[in-house]
Amino acid sequence: MKILVINAGSSSLKYQLIDMNGEVVIAKGICERVGAPEGHFELKTEKGKYEETVAMSNHTEAFLVVKKNLTEGEYKVIDSLDEITAIGHRVVQGGSIYKESTLITDEVIAGIESLCDLAPLHNPAHIQGINACREVFGDKVPQVAVFDNAFHSTMPEEAYMFGIPYEYYEKYQIRRYGFHGTSHRYVSGECAKIMGKDLKDIKLITCHLGNGSSITAIKDGKVIDTSMGLTPLDGFVMGTRSGGIDPSVVTFLQEKEGWTPAETNAVLNKKSGIYGISGGMSDDRDILKAADEGNERAELAKKMLWYQIRKYIGSYIAAMQGVDAIVFTGGIGENSQPLRQNICESFEYIGVKFNAEENPKAIRGVGGELSAPDSKVKVYVIPTNEELMIARDTKEIAEKVL
Ligand code: ADP
Q: Given 82, 106, 148, 220, which residue is catalytic?
């Protein structure tokens, strides 16, 4: 069975074609600058990488370009779209409506649409992607929505409520939803497998550290808290996002700088965090290099990130009254040895015994255990695979309707 996994953004469309027989990625790529006069198409297969400049005025045209290249020419991997059994879509915001992956129907599309206010940049694009798929594949191919925050839907209300008047929760559904749920779900499942335990029997803290980052506490097999909030802005400093700050900073700056809500959002999402502190660098590799070379602002950004991660992990240990394992994933978590060493060593007092020899081995998609065999608390690097998780859910749901 072959599953197509789609992540549709406002001007992009990422895709992966996965053969579920062996869970092998047979093609993956991206359509960029959809809607612009000149777009960019990329496809990677085992034969190599193919790129072309091609105009795609909307997502349907982007899908037609994907279809053409998957089924024709030098890089083709299938004879026709009929070989694709089902399509899984990443959907960022499922609100409180969708607590698990769901077969897409007209009603579900309306549901995703009703949540556009909560994810104005993402949900409208996902709907375009879903509709474009329907046009290209027809209604007979099941489509499944895999929600980024569904895994977090188990949070208790004391974790997801914000301390603002309750009426705004009722009126606008303002609460913590969390994101990266598919990644946290994937690595927590893998971690339980590695430990040879049932997820229900372990207390886990999963750290997804990339350009966007979040940390999640999992107890009794359920998320009990996560660092991202109503939007992916909450938590700790990220590549360009501020993470959690005193809310008064926002109103103070709006008054002083005369910012509109959109301008405020732009500063907090695109110009803050590591980028804002360092003065223009958001890539963790650049920060580490500059800090090593004596750049004080890069050093400060690095120290802030490490300190804030440590505080989150510490607070989740308190929330769960213990921890059995800590997992690192995402571009930074999977690669940044100094960060992992710093975090592991700072938890020696609760029983983390760091294995410095193993740290360099877990890099670029290779996982590993960072804790010593006799470490009370285990630490793992587990490369994430959100697309595979989406494909697995899609397969399971599609099999029920086909
Ligand atoms: P996104 O959130 O966009 O999916 P990724 O998970 O791909 O991002 O993570 C991107 C981050 O991973 C960047 O900050 C990048 O610097 C970092 N990264 C990648 N390789 C390394 C490395 N070898 N050392 C430190 N950081 C790395």
A: 148
